[in-house]
Target: Enterochelin esterase
Amino acid sequence: MTDSRYLKRTIIKEEMDSKYLAETRNLRIYLPPGYNEILSYPVVYCQDGEEFFNFGRIATIANRLILDEGAEPFIIVGVEVDTTVRTAEYAPFGSRFEAYVKCFAEEIIPYVQQKYPVRTETTETLIAGDSLGGSVSLHIALQYPHLFTRVLSLSGAYYEASQQLIASETDLSWLNIFMIVGLQENEFTTDTGTYDFVQLNRDTKSLLEARGAEVHYEEKDGHHLWGFWQKELPNALLYFFEE
Model:
């Protein structure tokens, strides 16, 4: 049974205008227990913001980690996405990819930093995502290493275009990435084809390590579903935020 303290969550909804995407983008901001605006906090930026909150239950998990598991209080920013253009925004071959990456780094980050007391050091900042959200999180970090050096990838969709971008890098010794993939994801069908996510993640791990990245890599029984990722979120967050 879930402790009632974990369910007392403060979540603020924001709308931000993006010139790069020529539209407004919805954000969900989780504020930790005991939040005080005169303090400063580590921050997690999540792709698929609505799903991280609704299906990943990240706010409830964060409350538990902070109240009972020794995690330093942190803020979560969930960046929502229209699922009809998700692949176009998250995949390197997508028509909105470049605009989305710029929106995330050059518009969303400054917007949040101006309104909330989030820390700006890369050691206090995490970018997270599932599937294509995991791969686009890594791509944003690769393009903006002064903003992001820590990435949480849940069953990242590292298609050929993503692997080519990673392979073009020479020195990733600054990168710290937590990767996990489910062993039952070896034949998963997406809107662009059927893929072996296990092999994609294994190959990407090798590419990253060959370039000096610090990779925490796990394979466990699990499917390409939030039921798997939700269970793995606590340990993944503690990997970065345990005091």
Notes: The helical segments are 49-54, 58-68, 86-90, 97-115, 132-143, 160-167, 197-210, 226-241. The longest strand covers residues 10-18.
